[in-house]
Fold this protein.
Amino acid sequence: MPVPSPSRTGPAGGTRRRRRGPRTWIAALPLLVFTGLCFGLPVAALLYGAVTGADPATGSTRLTGEHLRRSLQGPYLGSLIGSVQLSALTAVIGSVAGVLIAQAIVTSRRTWLRSATLTASGVLANFGGVPLAFAFIATAGISGVVTRLADLDSLGWNLYSFTGLAVVYLYFLTPLMVLVIIPALDGLRPQWREAAQNSGATGRQFWRLVGLPVLAPSLLGGFVLLFGSAFAAHATAAALVGGSVPLVTLKIADALSGNVLVGQENVALALSLDMIVIAGLVMAVYLPLQRRSARWLR
Amino acid sequence: MFRPSRLGATALLGAAALTTLTACGAAPDGAAAGAAVKANASTSAAGFGGMKALVAAAEKEGKLNVIALPADWANYGELIKAFEAKYKIKVGSENPDASSADEIAAVKARRGQKRAPDVLDLGIAFARSGAAENLFAPYKVEAFDKIPAGQKDPEARWYNDYGGYVSIGCDAKRIKNCPQTFADLLKPEYKGKVALNGNPTKSGSAFGGVYAAGLANKGSFADIQPGIDFFAKLKKSGNFIPVESTPATVEKGETPISIDWDYLNAGYADQFRGKGVDWKVSVPSDGVYAQYYSQAINKQAPHPAAARLWMEFLYSAEGQNLWLKGYARPVLLPAMTADGSADKGSVAKLPKVEGTPSFPSSAELDKAKAALAENWDKALS
């Protein structure tokens, strides 16, 4: 391909701007290098570690499916299932609650309510890890303030269980859903609703035939995001439930950095690989749908 | 910072993976060798030409890298200060809350670097596997022969340093009758009160707690299942809470009964006496289990002489008594009780134990751990 003359490509050369050029990819090079180094390399190392191991006889490295096999059975499989269950449940509840709150704000006429909720959501969506766990221990733990005031014990409340963990996760997942769904709800133009009403549609029909189909990809996207957040969460769960709710992130931490089990590093890498596969499967559902929604919501 | 996001997890995994990578690729750089060759090959103080020469060589290096030594654990804070005061050596303490696996990873990842840890305080399984991987330098401290045979590697690549018994700590201000045995813990009055120091598949002291509970329930060193069943029963009755007991949860009353090493529980008693916590410690008579940690020198220690001097210091009467002051039972305690060099005041303050401890063999430990890893989740969920 002939190299264009400088006068045509330079910004001062004319009003016509070239949208694509043979060398524009160079501008993206730093990003590509960064991605390759910071994401590609670890993934490659992870893959390598998951499928290789030291030969017990000779000590040399050999290819083996042993780690992947072990990561998919017994307590490791249990932890994967536990993580998927917890993430799916909290993502569903968080999505529904988040959408309802967001819709209430979008239709409300009070602008201060909207800005207050958005600010609070921004803060709460980022409130996680050990601080969140400790906040819950102090309020709803066994000797927590709320537990004693409201006598939650007699109602069967137990923070250190699957249910307790789900409630704690919803504390940051619901605001996250509010944040990501509000732009989509804003994108539902009032004119569409008016048009539907003028044509004699009921509110229900509007949502079933117009609202939800347009929103569906965004809803699903929000769900995927929430699922991912819950799936990868570690610190909160570690501080709250230790080993009593089987979660894959906790299992990886046990295997990588513990005082008890020796030589489990490769199984941890295999578990990480399983996590990537699960996250990939969930994303695979979402991506094609997101492309569809881009047409409507700008 | 702690936001649980997918990005964070990827970064974490990435960091872990990178560590593995560097571990494979790093080669020892020649600069650290040279003058240090002799120190790195010395297997006793005599190799330097006596203690004086060892001190001189160590002070010339002037620095010691330690890892995974919490200041409030077995009096390590005071040990480090005493060592710095006695010799002209600066102790760099890295990641006090690290685990044994982290220590081994640091040794492998920083092979030949100046920042590598010089000495390691390891769980016994990691001491054995590290020696098998040829990571440690053999070195006999002057008191080496006094260490009981069952508590040292014959080639002196590691030997036990201090240990303690599984004990039951109890906040007497919150609990009317403090439990004395594992059997007591099942009583309905302790509903929602009993905690372990972490997850037994990860934390050494929690593992000790399950092991001891097994011994209390007709288990053996080779059979930990009765211990797992015991905690399943405890969980079912609602007595067990999975919160990891820490100084913070003890002080707050969140873990009013905590199964932990006796030296940690006894330390809490001191620490919180003035804060409205009356922390009582008892070693359960039905499940007596003692476990020791081990000390080892990094084979490629950047400060080989200082590392050896640190070992001599730890196994001197002064070092052993400082551990004792932190309620840990130093490995030389029997010998020191016999020759009268043990600090009697500290000995008198140790929680009472009947009988002498016995230790599981390597094979028995492996078997117990495999059973625990396999069955703990099932029992507790």
